[in-house]
Amino acid sequence: MLWFQGVKVKIRKIIGKIFTTILWSILTIITLFPIYWMVLVSTRTPVELFGKPNLSPTFFQKIHWKNFTKPFIDGIYSDYLFNSIIVATSNAALVTILALMATYALSRFKLPGSESIFFWTMTNRMAPPAAFMLPLFLLFSTVFKFGDFTLFDTKIGLILLYCVFNLPFAIWLLKGIIDGIPKELDEAMIVDGANLFTVFWKLIIPLAAPGIAVTSLLSFLFAWNEYLLASTLTSVYARTIPTGLSEFVTTTGTNWGTMAAVALVSMIPALIFLFLVQRYIVAGLTFGAVKG
Amino acid sequence: MFSNNRTGWLLLSPTIFILILVGLVPFFYVLYVGFFKWNPLAVDPSMQFEGFGYNYRQLIFDEVFLSSIWRSIRFAVVTLFFELSLGFLLALSLLSSFPLKSFFRGVHTLPLVIAPIVVGSIFKLFTVQGLGPLPHFLKDFFGYTLNYGLNADQAFWMIVIMDIWHWTPFVTLTLLAGLSALPQDPYESAKIDGANNFQIFIYITIPMMVPVLIVVIFIRLMDSLKIVDEVWMLTGGGPGYATRFTGIHIWKEVFEKRFYGFGSAMSILYLYITIVICWLLYSVMVSRGKSED
Asked: B274 and A187: CB-CB below 8 Å?
C-alpha cells in the first residue's frame, strides 16, 4: 500500500500547484486589468469611449495620438513634465550626497547625541504630510522671504522640501552599508595622507555603489510620485505632473482620454524603476527593518 | 581623525540644517499659529490672540473633525485586516514553487511603485459611471448599481478596495522576506513530532513572524492614517462626508475656507494622534524585542 500513499501525496501536491497557479493568474488579471483599461482609454477618441465599454485591444489597429499630443505638445503638460524631471533628479542627487555625508558622520565619529539625531530624522518620515501642509504653505509664501524671492511656487522649494521625507530613509538605508565597511580601511588611507574627499571618492562610494544607486532611485521615485505638498506649494511655475493630473478632476466634462494619457506617461519612471531595483523594494519600503 | 568631532558635525550640518528648516520650523510655526484666531477671508484678516485654548476648545466639539479621525482609524483597521490576511496567504503560497512564479511576483510588485495619484486615476477611469467597465459589468451580470458618487457606503468601500489593490503587494513581499529568513530547525522537529500543517502554522510560523508582523502593521497603519491623494482623485472626500479622511478634511478647512488658526490646531491634533498611535506600536515593538533577548 505504500506506493499508493506515495501517489496520493504526489496527486495532492499537483492539485496544490494547479490551485496556486490559478489563484495567482486571477490576481494578475485583477492587478493588470485596470491598467489595461487605462491604456485602452488613452488610445481612444471621446466618441469611441461613449456607451458600452469595449474591452478589445483596439490599440493594435488605431491609436488616437491626439490624447498625447494635446497635453504634451500643445498644452502646459510638457512644462509639468520638465518640472517633475528637474525636481525629482535634483532631489535624488541632493539627498544622496547629503545622506552619504550624514551617514558617514553618524557611522564613524562618536558624536554626542548622534542616536537622538538619528531618531529625530526618522520621526520626520513618519509625520503625515497633511499636518505640515498649512505651516509649509504659510512659511514658503510669507515667512521665508529673501527680498522678493519666496520659496513658494519654486522648484528649489520642492527640492528642499522632499529632503524631509527622503533624507531619513536614505540615511537609514545607507547606514547599514557604511557600517559594514571596516573602519580600518579609512584609517589606513588617512595614515597614507589621503584627505576626506579622497576617502569618499576612492573607498566609500565604490564600495557602497549598489546602496547609493538604490537610495537615489527610491528618492527619485518618491519625489516623482509626491502629490499633496506639490499641489499646495505651487501655483503656476513649479507644478509637477501629479498636480497636473489632479486638475482633470475639477473641470466639468473630463476628457478621459487625455487624463489616461497623462497618467500613463507619469507612470513610465515607475515602470523603469521596477525593472531596475525590484529586489530592493522591500528593504527600501520597510527602512531595512525587513531584508528583501 | 575620527576623534576630531568638528569634521563629523561639519558633515552632518547640511542635513540638520535642511531638516530644521523644512521639518522643525514648520512644526513650531503651526503650534504658534494654532493659538490664534486667523482667517484671511474674514472681516478682520489679522491674527488675533484669544487665549491659548481658543481653537482647541472649538476643535473638541467639532463633530466633523472628530468623525473624520474616527473614519481614518476605521479605514486603517479595515484595510489592515484585509491586506494582512490576503498578504499572509499569498506570501505562504510564494514559498512553494509553481509555474510562472517569478512573472506573477513581478506583476504583483507593480502597484507598489505607482504614484497614489495615478492609482486614483486608474481607479477613476475603471469605476466611474458612464465610462468604466466595472459599473457596466456589475449592472449586466448582477443587476447591482455601482455609483459611488451618490452612495456613501460604496464610496468608502471603493477606497478600501483601491487601497487593498495598491498595498497588499507590500504586505505580501515583506512577509515573504520574513518567512524566507526563518530558521528551518523548528519545522523539522515539528514534522518529526507529527504536527500537521495547520499546527505548524499556528504554533511555529506565527510566533516566529511576530517581529515582522509588527513592522508591517506599524508601516501600514501609519500610511493609512496619512491617506489623501488617492481619495482626492477618486471621490474628492464625498459624497457628503463619506470619504472625508482627516487629511482631506484639513485641506478643505485650510484651502477652501481659509481657517488658518483653526486648521493649525487641527494639524497639531492630527499629528498628536498619529504620534500616540506610533508610540504605542513602537513600545509594543521594543517590549517584544526585550522579552526575546
From this structure: no
